[in-house]
């Protein structure tokens, strides 16, 4: 087994069986196939079934999809969660990523002092769990504790305070901003790394031409950053359309108030796992998961073929 | 490294620092507020939430409740086991597969590589219904094993992707010299190639350990029983139960925050290097 042919050019004779290749591959391939790929395929398959008599599984074709997209009971919830999810994603794209990029741009300035300290601090929220972050903000914004109104009072803006997490028209935006607060460090780090890889000569040339500061960022650096911004956008998209924890922790499984913060992830959880008022339905759960899978695939394909191909990559 | 005067303008540099300091406050103030108030009595928490704990407001009653009622040492142990074993399996299995996929030539290799890294784009949560069925059929629901298997499967694509990139850069001469000396392929992988993988392993560790430690979904769905609860799920349950006991809630939150903060501070250099080297390009 120890001898492989691959040191010599392939030209001669029969190869000995290279058993080490399947042996090296086996553990990863087995775990990955059994625990990730097979359950995904199985969930897809289950979406075409339903429970007949107790414990019996019957094939029902597209019935679950018809129910999801056609019945008042399911479609209302699905549409609500989908729209909320797009809003959640839009806020991340409009707030998290621009601020992350701006912070990275400031931190990458060579003369700036203390950048390691700032960088380390800005990433702290991202290493904490949603459970912690969710509760921290729930307490801070809570009218019972009164921290938020008290702080606003001190700067004379007390009249602005509302129980933001408790009102249907502000809860989703507030949650999105909490999530932005938590994850701003990730785009910041990725853009920071991309900015560091821009060659010094390019920046020096720009400075010789008198292009400095903000103009330098928009004219020289930003065009080089678009590919990284693309990656960040797709990461944000996949992450957001899969989000669950923050809503579950702060607003509960029913996405209070009144379902206004429901995302596809919480909808999926409630459906297959059940809750106090309804039994879990694994078949509808599988159907929702398949629909989410479709949305993510469409999003990724749109990005790969619609956006990524139009980006200009510069050799550096 | 020295740049021209444009940036050393003191006015501008202080404006930039002002922006950064404001953001620093936004980042840390909420966390400090929670930790600070966890050391106060109920009266202190509500009477003077923005002040440091002092003589009459200082109290450890929250921590006492957490330690007498909560089962946090057990949860902590569960989280540690799950996170570390999953990371080990991910790295070892991932390295073996990455080696098989990058070192040798054979038919079907490209397809196999594509298959193994497909999982980078697909969230494993969407297979939850299938995973639940399978774990129930295998008789391992409500075990740490179930969690470890899920997290290993979830992170293998990343590990394989990152390590096979780096393995292509290991010198062929070195490996061939070892082959002539009669070292087996396994020894070449573990003795020669693995030591070179250290930066890749740092990246994988960051992207594996933080999400596993913080995950709520799979502990909630797969292993919600008292004996298998992770810290994240335990904190969620505890806080849910004690919602009205503010000092207990604040103490539980602080107990969940402080270990992560300390670990992060100790390893922030490596963590940041892991993020910036692995994800860009």
UniProtKB/TrEMBL annotation, chain B:
**Domain ABC transmembrane type-1, chain residue ranges per copy:** 76-267
Its annotated compartments are: Cell membrane
What is any one of the record's Gene Ontology cellular component terms? Answer: plasma membrane
Give the InterPro entries listed for this entry. MetI-like (IPR000515), MetI-like_sf (IPR035906)
Provide this UniProt record's keywords sorted from A to Z: Cell membrane, Membrane, Transmembrane, Transmembrane helix, Transport
Membrane topology per the entry is: Multi-pass membrane protein
Q: Which domain of life is it from?
A: Bacteria
One family from Pfam that matches here is BPD_transp_1
Q: Which SUPFAM superfamilies match?
A: MetI-like
Q: Which GO terms describe its biological process?
A: transmembrane transport
The regions listed as transmembrane in this protein's record are 15-36, 80-101, 113-140, 146-167, 188-213, 246-267
The family classification in the record reads: Belongs to the binding-protein-dependent transport system permease family.
Protein name, UniProt field: Sugar ABC transporter permease
Per the UniProt record, the source organism is Marinibacterium profundimaris
């Amino acid at each position: 087994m120890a001898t492989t042919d691959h040191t010599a050019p392939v030209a001669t004779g029969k190869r000995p069986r290279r058993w080490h290749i399947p042996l090296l591959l086996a553990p990863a391939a087995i775990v990955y196939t059994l625990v990730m790929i097979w359950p995904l395929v199985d969930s897809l398959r289950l979406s075409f079934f339903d429970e007949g008599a107790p414990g019996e599984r019957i094939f029902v074709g597209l019935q679950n999809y018809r129910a999801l997209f056609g019945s008042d009971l399911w479609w209302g919830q699905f549409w609500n969660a989908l729209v909320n999810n797009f809003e959640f994603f839009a806020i991340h794209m409009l707030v998290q990523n621009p601020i992350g990029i701006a912070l990275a741009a400031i931190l990458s300035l060579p003369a700036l002092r203390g950048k390691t300290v700032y960088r380390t601090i800005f990433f702290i929220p991202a290493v904490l769990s949603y459970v912690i972050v969710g509760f921290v903000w729930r307490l801070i914004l809570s009218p019972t504790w009164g921290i938020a109104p008290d702080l606003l009072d001190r700067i004379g803006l007390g009249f602005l305070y509302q129980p933001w997490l408790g009102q249907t028209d502000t809860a989703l935006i507030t949650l999105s901003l909490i999530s932005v607060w938590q994850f701003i460090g990730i785009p910041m780090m990725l853009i920071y790394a991309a900015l560091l890889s821009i060659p010094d000569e390019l920046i020096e040339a720009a400075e010789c031409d008198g292009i400095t500061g903000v103009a330098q960022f928009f004219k020289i650096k930003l065009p080089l950053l678009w590919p990284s911004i693309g990656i960040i956008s797709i990461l944000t998209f996949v992450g957001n359309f899969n989000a669950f924890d923050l809503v579950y922790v702060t607003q509960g499984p029913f996405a209070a108030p009144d379902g206004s913060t429901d995302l596809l992830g919480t909808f999926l959880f409630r459906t297959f796992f059940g809750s106090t008022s309804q039994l879990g339905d694994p078949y509808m759960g599988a159907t929702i998961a398949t629909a989410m899978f479709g949305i993510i695939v469409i999003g990724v394909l749109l990005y790969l073929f619609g956006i990524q191909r139009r980006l200009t990559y510069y050799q550096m | 490294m020295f740049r021209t005067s444009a940036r050393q303008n003191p006015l501008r540099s202080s404006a930039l620092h002002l922006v950064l300091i404001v953001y620093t406050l936004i980042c840390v103030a909420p966390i400090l507020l929670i930790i600070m108030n966890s050391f106060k009595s109920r009266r202190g928490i509500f009477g003077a939430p923005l002040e440091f704990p002092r003589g009459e407001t200082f109290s450890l009653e929250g921590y006492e409740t957490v330690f007498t009622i909560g089962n946090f040492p057990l949860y902590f142990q569960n989280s540690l086991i799950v996170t570390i074993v999953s990371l080990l399996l991910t790295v070892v299995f991932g390295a073996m597969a990455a080696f098989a996929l990058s070192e040798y030539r054979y038919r079907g290799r490209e397809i196999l590589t594509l298959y193994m890294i497909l999982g980078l784009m697909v969230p494993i949560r969407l297979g939850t219904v299938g995973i639940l069925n399978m774990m129930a059929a295998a008789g391992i629901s409500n075990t740490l094993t179930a969690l470890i298997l899920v997290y290993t499967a979830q992170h293998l694509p990343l590990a394989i992707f990152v390590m096979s990139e780096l393995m292509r850069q290991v010198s062929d001469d070195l490996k061939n010299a070892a082959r002539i000396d009669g070292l087996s392929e396994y020894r070449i992988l573990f003795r020669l190639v693995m030591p070179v993988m250290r930066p890749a392993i740092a990246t994988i560790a960051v992207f594996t350990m933080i999400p596993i430690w913080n995950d709520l979904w799979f502990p909630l769905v797969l292993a919600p029983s008292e004996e298998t609860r992770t810290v994240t799920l335990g904190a969620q349950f505890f806080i849910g139960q004690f919602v009205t006991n503010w000092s207990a809630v604040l103490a539980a939150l602080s107990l969940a925050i402080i270990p992560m903060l300390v670990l992060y501070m100790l390893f922030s250099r490596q963590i940041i290097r892991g993020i910036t080297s692995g994800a860009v390009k």
